[in-house]
Amino acid sequence: MRIHFQPLSFLSTTAFVLCSIFFSMVVHAQEYPNKPITMVMPYAPAGPGDAITRLFAGSMQKILGQQILVDNTSGASGSIGTAKVAKSKPDGYTLLMIHVSHATNMAMYKNLSYHPVDDFEPIGLATNGPMLIVARNDFPPKDLNEFVSYVKANQNNISIANAGLGSASHLCDLLMMKVLGVKLTEIPYKGTGPAMIDLMGGQVDLMCDQTSGTVPPIKAGKIKAYAAANKNRLPSLPNTPSITEAGIKGLDINISFGLYAPKGTPPAVLEKLTTALQQSVADPEVKKRLDGMGISAVSIDQATPAALRAHLKNEIDTLNDLLIKAGVQPN
Ligand code: MLT
Fold first, then answer.
1. Domain end: 206, 230, 246, which one?
2. Which atom of ligand 1 is nearest to the CA of 168?
3. Is 173 in the pocket of ligand 1 (CB under 6 A)?
4. Are 175 and 251 in contact (CB under 8 A)?
5. Residues contacting 282, CB < 8 A, separation 6+
6. Residue 97 sits in which domain range?
């Protein structure tokens, strides 16, 4: 039997298939979202990232008219939850809220199962906030100056918590140890939520954590703050000195969270998500709640894919080098 190739019928079949794909994408985007969305926070509950994710999930679900569930798939410095999003269906129903570890995990984990840039679609930045050096309530030094000399004199007997290699708290710990010229015993957790429980209980001495995790327990008198890990004092804690007031330079950390979807999510779905994120960062209620955590919502022009893409590139370019130079070994 001979098969005759018929160019016209081949072309019309191809056109039909392409039209159907396009049509189903448009219909899908128009209907989106028509079922609950999952927002993955790749650190443990009750930490700074968890508080931020729950706030944005709550705000965006009102805007999008669909429930947004928070999924704390934690461990390995956020890389387990991040991998889960990278491998999920790119339909806008699985999102990732993450900070600096999206960049640093590239340097920390040689065998990452995803690429932070190539496997994700950026939606936009959400927040920006500083960090604080905090301690268990009965840590001996009375003020920042005493803290500096005490830590230098007792470095072999002091423990400092972090949320895993390449986390915000780990970066802050490394920089703090560098500027003070000390080496403390580092204790990794699955997030600063569980680390904070141990700090409040006195099982660990110190932590350098985001204000969204530290301001509430400081104000409740459960831990104490020695300094802002920033050039200036923080409006949320005006009575706490900046580390520079003890003559220490080179520590000025700000941490931003951003929202991502898996690569291949339809552009119209991404656009809806960016618009919802922009409405959230402009919402006075969201701003007020963030203010209570000592952090800020970004401006609307930062809640965009372009701003998050540029932010991630900058963090990959600057921080990974810092971590490798600090001698943090990739696994
Ligand atoms: C968390 O939510 O536990 C933190 O964002 C972890 C960290 O990076 O320090």
1. 246
2. 8
3. no
4. yes
5. 297, 300
6. 28-129+254-325
The 10s digit of each residue's pLDDT in 207-231 is 999 998 899 899 999 999 999 999 9
What does the pLDDT look like over 82-130, one tens digit per residue?
999 999 999 999 999 999 999 999 888 888 999 999 999 999 999 999 9
What CATH number has the domain bearing residue 66? 3.40.190.150
Please give the tally of structural domains in the chain. 2
Calculate how far, in angstroms, residue 167's C-alpha sits from the geometric centre of ligand 1.
Answer: 6
Q: What is the pLDDT of residues 155-201, one digit of tens each?
A: 999 999 999 888 999 999 999 999 999 999 999 999 999 999 999 99
Residues 172 and 224 in one domain: yes
Say yes or no: CB of residue 48 within 6 Å of ligand 1.
yes
Q: Which of 38-52, 292-306, 314-328 has the lowest mean pLDDT?
A: 314-328
Q: Is residue 13 part of a domain?
A: no
CB of 50 within 6 A of ligand 1: the answer is yes
Q: Taking the CB of residue 188, how many other CB atoms lie within 10 A of it?
A: 14
Q: Of 231, 273, 238, 279, give the one whose Cα is nearest residue 254.
A: 231
